[in-house]
Write a structure and sequence with these properties.
By secondary structure, this protein is mainly α. About 85% of the residues lie in helices and about 0% in strands. The relative contact order is 0.12. Pfam families: Cornichon.
């Protein structure tokens, strides 16, 4: 069970790192005026929910598998993503 949790966490973290690099590249294109703000937002907004789900799954898995230190490391990021999503829902 423990190995499966860590393998899934590794794959999820790799996907989240890839997503962060994609965000940086897209924002860099916006800065250099290769794309306009509307298309940049439409490209990035569709990946916010998967990012939230990815962080939440890893955090819950670490809580369930009783890895407290890793859970406490992931908790601020998951909390920030949930807070950001709640603010986005309130402002819409």
């Amino acid at each position: 069970m423990e190995a499966v949790v860590f393998v899934f966490s590794l794959l999820d973290c790799c996907a989240l790192i890839f997503l962060s690099v994609y965000f940086i590249i897209t924002l860099s294109d916006l800065e250099c005026d290769y794309i306009n703000a509307r298309s940049c937002c439409s490209k990035l907004n569709k990946w916010v929910i998967p990012e939230l789900i990815g962080h939440a799954i890893v955090t819950v898995l670490m809580l369930i598998s009783l890895h407290w230190f890793i859970f406490l490391l992931n908790l601020p990021v998951a909390t920030w993503n949930i807070y950001r999503m709640i603010l986005a829902l309130i402002n819409d």
